């Protein structure tokens, strides 16, 4: 499904920049790619009745509030529709391990053999998938997502965790 064929999608996404203290070039690149890919193709369908029966496309703002992740969902004309709050505790271990393996990956790119880089990248993708599946599970009764959308959102959640 492409973004242009469904109203059940994110048409604009914003990260609460006040939550992000530092970002290096690698992280900034990951953020840009995740946003670009997300907006190109995603499935995002809030479950339940939204104000005025609105059915997309959606503006999404991700932000942190008291160690919780908040999804502020709005209409594409800027009208607030709903907020979904998720505790971050279930994600903490995966995010921490993901950051560690990403650091190893970026270091390996500079000096390791292709085989070593590939092994680290497989681990990185595995953790990324684990975080994405957890996100889908935690949102299952609130928002329908596909795996690609969950993967891109997980990347952006990680960006919000950088301190």
What does this entry look like structurally?
47% of the residues lie in helices and 22% in strands. β4 and β5 form a beta hairpin. The strands form two sheets. A four-stranded mixed β-sheet has the order 1-3-4-5, covered by helices on one side. The chain has a two-stranded antiparallel ribbon with strand order 2-6. The model has no long low-confidence stretch (mean pLDDT 86). The protein is elongated, with a radius of gyration of 16 Å. α1 (25-40) runs antiparallel to α4 (147-160), α2 runs antiparallel to α3 and α3 (114-139) crosses α4. The protein has four helices and six strands.
What fraction strand? 15-25%
Task: Describe the main β-sheet briefly.
Answer: 4 strands, mixed
Oligomer: single chain
Number of strands: 6
What share of the residues lie within helices? Answer: 40-55%
Radius of gyration: 16 Å
Globular, elongated, flat, extended or rod-shaped: what is the shape? elongated
The H-and-E topology, N to C, reads as EHEEEEHHEH
Average predicted confidence as pLDDT: 86
Question: Which residues form runs of ≥5 with pLDDT under 50?
Answer: none
Distance between the termini: 35 Å
Count, helices: 4
Helix and strand content put the structural class at alpha+beta
Strand line-up of the largest beta sheet: 1-3-4-5
Layout of helices and strands, plus pairs?
Layout: E1 10-15, H1 25-40, E2 44-46, E3 58-65, E4 68-75, E5 80-87, H2 92-111, H3 114-139, E6 143-145, H4 147-160
What's a quick, concise take on this entry?
The chain contains four helices and six strands; from the N terminus they run βαββββααβα. It has helices at residues 25-40, 92-111, 114-139, 147-160; strands spanning 10-15, 44-46, 58-65, 68-75, 80-87, 143-145.
């Amino acid at each position: 499904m492409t973004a242009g064929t469904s109203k059940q999608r994110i048409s604009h996404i914003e990260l609460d920049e006040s939550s992000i203290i530092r970002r290096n070039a690698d992280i900034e690149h990951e953020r840009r790619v995740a946003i670009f890919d997300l907006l190109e193709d995603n499935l995002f369908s809030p479950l339940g009745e939204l104000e005025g029966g609105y059915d997309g496309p959606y503006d999404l703002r991700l932000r942190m509030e008291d160690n919780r992740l908040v999804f502020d969902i709005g209409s594409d004309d800027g009208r607030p529709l709903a907020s979904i709050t998720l505790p971050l505790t279930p994600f903490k271990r995966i995010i921490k391990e993901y950051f560690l393996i990403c650091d190893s990956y970026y270091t390996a790119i500079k000096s390791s053999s292709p085989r070593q880089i590939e092994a680290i990248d497989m681990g990185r993708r595995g953790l990324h998938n684990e975080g994405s599946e957890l996100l889908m599970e935690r949102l299952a009764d609130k928002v329908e997502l596909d795996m690609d959308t969950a993967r891109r959102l997980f990347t952006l959640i990680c960006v919000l965790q950088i301190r």
